[in-house]
Amino acid sequence: MKSDLKTRHGGKILADALAAQGVKLAFGVPGESYLPVLDGLHDLRERIKFVICRQEGGASYMAEAYGKLTGEPGVLLVTRGPGATNGAIGVHTALQDSTPMVIFIGQVPNEFAEREAFQEMDYRRMYGQMAKWVGQIDRVERIPEYVSRAFHTAVAGRPGPVVLALPEDTLFSEAAVADAPKHHVVRPAPSDSDLKKLSQLLEKAERPFVLLGGGGWTREACARLQRWIEANGLGVGTSFRCQDLFDNRSANYIGDVGIGINPKLAERVKEADVLLVIGARLGEMTTSAYTLVEAPVPKQTLIHVHAGAEELGRVYRPALAINSGYPQFIEALEHLSFKNVAWKERTAAARKEFAEWTEPRPMPGSVQYGQVIRWLSDHLPEDAIIAGGAGNFAGWLHRHFRYKGFRTQLGSTNGSMGYGYPAAVAAKIAEPQRTVFALCGDGDFLMTGQEIATAAQYGANFVAVVVNNGLYGTIRMHQEREYPGRVYGTELKNPDFAAYARAFGGHGETVERTEDFAPAYERAAKSGKPALIELRIDPDAITPTMTLSAIRDKALKSKQ
Ligand SMILES: Cc1ncc(C[n+]2csc(CCOP(=O)(O)OP(=O)(O)O)c2C)c(N)n1
Ligand SMILES: [Mg+2]
Fold first, then answer.
1. Which of these, 251, 521, 534, lies nearest to 376 by C-alpha position?
2. What is the tens place of the pLDDT at every residue in 263-312?
3. CA within 20 to 30 Å of 138's CA: 88, 258, 262, 293, which one?
4. Ligand 1 center–CA 321 separation, angstroms
């Protein structure tokens, strides 16, 4: 029987497979190793937008941010060897952030394999620890099968990154094969007995604490959970950089259980009799280095709900382990109701502590950075996307910004610098109707700041703030604490950031006083260009409450 399937080259089969998986946006840097894929994408250019970046590190952050924002796998295309190594950072972020992502990497032709041919690497070994699965497509006929598995794997259970290597001959060869349809999202649901046990444990609880985190949530699940939480009077905290899973304006939101945690909130986690953890892995940042919750058997009665079966009992032996997707779990949770007045009172007290903690404190210098964040929190639209990088500057954001809805926060829980700017570029390209804002440090920004060229090329017009303290401030803080006065390797000589933005065709502003920020922001937002505001803060203002000099003095005293 004659097949009516068309013969296509591997690159075209791959591009069609991406379209079949529902891919609309992909990010990358081109390479001669995957020219047939570019050729395949050429035919689909109205359907799939391939955003070309300036460095694979930026591209991989963009793909990760897209996956985080949309819940659909972020797609990254990079060339072999150098492209693959540059692109690794976003893959690590995707792993630690439980973000679905599929990475395609060029590979030497099969006939040269294992000779250390030009730019050859074994991606199974290189990415082995960083990805949920690494495959190499050795035969052109099997492209649809591999791509289908990659997308299924990226979104299943605990989402994460998947890597597929593409040997050159696979891409140049031809075959007549069918596309595989779009992947399923396979997630378990809780059993009746899980729910019964959960109900019994919560019924007895006097000091329950609900903690949310991780990837694999939906807008609807978050909204429904919020209604249930409010109806039952429970207090909710969010794990490190997952502050947008619960409307921070709700009276039941009591704060972020992350780095620089409110000590009173930390105490509440420790003192809880029942900890209901939904989606969070309970990692080092969330548990204050495994001190809020003890491993392997916590003092609190731990009810751990996670979509990845292998995450349950990985560090903590829960009293009740529920393997479930979060929408599925919340649907079941809605059948339970509790009328415990004491919970409500505790929640109200915790909310008061949250309000006190998040009030900006005066700091040295003419820029009150806490007030700037508060202004942004009060003035940006409710659904604005806030992308942030890593460094002490992010501490003010965590503390003073109120996230108001699902996927309004893009941050890296692996604490990787350089995330915020490219994440904002991806967000603006993916959701141009929403306001996007990036918060970067001076060290942080220049790790990927050249992606301002990508923003200009694709019309991603949003405002970024670079918080300039002339330091790798986080490291300086730790340095002064451990080796007071012995400053080394933590100072920065910076460019004129506003001029840098203008050189790329963007809009640049420099702000040195609190009162100048709002008008500068308004000008930047209206500029119709990628805009950058350099915010010069006093280097002594090292955290929202501490000065560098006080840290040094204290350390010097304790060493005397
Ligand atoms: C990719 C990467 N490299 C190095 C580090 C270590 N590191 C953490 S914070 C930091 C300094 C951040 O400096 P900056 O962006 O200026 O922020 P600041 O702490 O000064 O506010 C460094 C070097 C990291 N987290 N990620
Ligand atoms: Mg700095």
1. 521
2. 999 999 999 999 999 999 999 999 999 999 999 999 999 999 999 999 99
3. 88
4. 36
Does ligand 1 lie within 6 Å of residue 443's CB atom?
yes
Q: Are 119 and 80 in contact (CB under 8 A)?
A: yes
- Nearest atom (ligand 1) to Cα of 390: 9
For 319-367, write each residue's pLDDT tens digit: 999 999 999 999 999 999 998 999 999 999 999 999 999 999 999 999 9
Q: CB-based contacts of 444: which residues, under 8 Å, 6+ apart? A: 389, 390, 391, 393, 417, 418, 419, 420
Which residue among 414, 416, 417 is best mutated to probe the pocket of ligand 1, counting the most ligand atoms within 8 A of its Cβ?
417
User: In angstroms, what is the span from residue 385 Cα to ligand 2's centroid?
Assistant: 22
d(Cα 280, Cα 308) in Å, to the nearest integer? 11
The SS3 call for residue 164 is strand
Tell me phi and psi for residue 496, to 5 degrees.
Answer: -80, 105
Q: CA dist 361 to 228, 370, 371, Å?
A: 34, 7, 8
Q: Which residues surround ligand 2, an ion (CB under 5 A)?
A: 441-443, 469, 471, 473
Rounded to two decimals, the pTM is: 0.97
